[in-house]
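Homework help board

Subject: predicted structure for assignment chain

Our instructor gave us this sequence and asked us to write out the predicted structure in token form, then describe one feature. I got the tokens but I'm not sure how to describe them. Can anyone check?
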Amino acid sequence: MSHPLLWPKAVESRVYQKKIADVAYEKDTVVILPTALGKTIISALVAADILKRQKERNKNIL
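My token output:
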């Protein structure tokens, strides 16, 4: 997975996780997946996207 706010190769992301994260960024979402399928990874991707986009808009998150 490549994201400017995440360490390279720190997380092995799956295609379905990225797709779910993209949807979750755009609208309120409840992610229901079995254990060990990456709910935490999905939330990290969403959080990283929010931080990146806010930084691009010259906004700070406290």
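Reply (TA_rk): Your tokens look well-formed. For the description, you could write something like this. DSSP finds two helices and no strands in the chain. That's the kind of observation they're looking for.
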